[in-house]
Specification:
single chain, alpha+beta, 4 strands, 11 helices, 8% strand, 305 residues, Alpha-Beta Plaits, four-stranded antiparallel β-sheet
């Protein structure tokens, strides 16, 4: 009988404050959707880091005849065969190096034409203007500085370039966007909590006569508070369910279908459904506990039971 009373009171409370209940559901849904989205964004960035850092190369570009005339790093002339042999020998002896690939001027020219064949500059270039290079695969991409220290400024070396630096800029941008989403999420959570507290207080005020009678007949504090706490929990749980729906729909239409980014951006290793599904229980648990706790602490002061 008591459980039936609590359930009936929950229904009454939700219907009495329908507008505020709807506002709570929407604010909880948006804030938790942003929360889940930020978690998935973190997973995506980490996934991309693991995928791309494993493919990072360090490139040691060698001086050619054109560089000898225009580049201060190549003031001593184009690289010689002895210098190339010495560079290769030193690379073979370095413990941080996993694999070394030599790219000739003809190969560099061919790759350039494949990637930038439509560029106006491509028609004016010749193979002898391209640079020979060593493409170095490191055992640990973080050890780039070892290569840079060993070869930067050496005779015959025009420059040492690390692809990881380019990726770091990209991941820095993605992380910045993720933190911006978390800031908006935090603001939405504050708004949701304020709405929950106000909704509970309005509901308690509208039923102050019933709670007064219950207090006089000896009802326990928890028994009086339970309907209000459950109202907030139910509204929050509905919002959490909507947030989960947002994430599932977003994953389906943005990555798999609709925009189909997984097909259009083959170079990006997108997170799978397992990453999404593991976040849903956390979102539902948060949507249930957050409003319930907010209502509990609000009622302790307001009802004084």
């Amino acid at each position: 009988m008591r459980a039936q009373f609590v359930v009936s009171e929950i229904g009454v409370g939700l219907r009495r404050n329908l507008t505020m209940t709807f506002a709570v559901i929407v604010s909880v849904a948006l804030s938790l959707a942003l929360f889940g989205g930020s978690l998935l964004m973190s997973d995506q960035v980490n996934n991309m880091k693991g995928y791309w850092y494993d493919k990072v190369n360090v490139s040691v570009f060698l001086c050619n005849k054109s560089d000898a005339e225009s580049d201060p790093n190549c003031a001593k002339g184009a690289v010689t065969e002895d210098q190339k042999k010495q560079i290769m020998s030193d690379l073979d002896e370095m413990a941080v190096v996993e694999k070394v690939t030599y790219e000739s001027q003809d190969e560099a020219y061919k790759h350039y034409k494949e990637q930038f064949g439509d560029s106006p500059l491509a028609s004016s270039l010749t193979p002898d203007q391209m640079q020979e290079s060593y493409r170095i695969k490191l055992k640990d991409p973080e050890k780039y500085q070892v290569i840079a220290t060993a070869f930067d400024g050496r005779d015959g070396v025009q420059s040492v370039q690390d692809q990881k630096g380019i990726l770091d800029n990209l991941f820095g941008l993605l992380n910045g966007m993720n933190w911006a989403a978390r800031a908006v999420m935090a603001l939405m959570l504050v708004v949701a909590l304020m709405l929950i507290v106000n909704t509970v207080r309005v509901s308690a005020f509208s039923r102050r006569r019933e709670t007064g009678i219950m207090r006089l007949v000896g009802a326990s504090g928890f028994y009086i508070q339970a309907p209000f706490i459950m109202e907030a929990a139910v509204a929050g749980l509905i919002g959490g369910g909507v947030a989960c729906g947002f994430l599932v729909i977003a994953r389906y239409f943005i990555i798999d279908h609709g925009l189909a980014l997984s097909e259009k951006l083959n170079l990006i290793n997108f997170i799978g459904w397992d990453a999404v599904l593991t976040k849903l229980p956390l979102i539902l648990a948060t949507s249930l506990l957050m409003p319930a706790l907010a209502a509990f602490f609000a009622l302790r002061k307001y009802l004084k039971v």
